Amino acid sequence: MLPLRSCIACRKKQEKAQLIRIVSTEDKKAIFDKTQKMNARGIYICKNIECLKKIQKGIEKNKVKLKIPVTQESFRNLIEDLMRELGE
Ligand SMILES: [Zn+2]
């Protein structure tokens, strides 16, 4: 069976390949792990604008508890980049 991960925005469990994997660097920057193989703890979010928007709002309201050591600022920047990439 393929490994399932849940999205931090909608909590739905999906195959890893359907999700965006985000990991933290040593200096607490959030980065998109395109290979999904970086040796760091990752969190996952759906590849859709709805979930990205949801998490962006949550961050603004300080309602998101990130389970990886990243700064809120770098996480927010990454989410914005991903939204742009998805075409919004
Ligand atoms: Zn989702």
Structural overview:
The chain has 88 residues and is of the alpha+beta class. It has one domain (4-85): YlxR-like (Hypothetical Cytosolic Protein, Chain: A), CATH 3.30.1230. It is 30% helix and 23% strand. The chain contains two helices and five strands. The strands form two sheets. Strands 4-3-5 form a three-stranded antiparallel beta sheet, with helices on one face. The longest helix is centred in the last third of the chain and has 14 residues, at 72-85. The mean pLDDT is 94. Zinc ion is lined by residues 7, 9-10, 12, 46, 51. Residues 7, 9-10, 12, 46, 51 line the site of zinc ion.
The tally of domains stands at 1
Name the hetero compounds present: zinc ion
**Which residue ranges are poorly predicted, with pLDDT under 50 across at least 5 consecutive positions?**
none
Q: How many helical elements?
A: 2
Strand tally = 5
* Helix-strand makeup class: alpha+beta
Instruction: Write out the CATH superfamily name.
Output: YlxR-like
N-to-C order of helices and strands: EEEEEHH
- Morphology: globular
Q: Can you summarize the main beta sheet?
A: 3 strands, antiparallel
What's the CATH C level? Alpha Beta
Measured as a percent range, the helix fraction is 25-40%
What name does CATH use for the topology? Hypothetical Cytosolic Protein, Chain: A
Adjacency order of strands in the biggest sheet: 4-3-5
For the residues shown, what is the average pLDDT? Answer: 94
Named CATH architecture:
2-Layer Sandwich
Please report the distance between the alpha carbons of the first and last residues.
34 Å
Beta-sheet strand percentage?
Answer: 15-25%
**Backbone CA Rg:** 12 Å
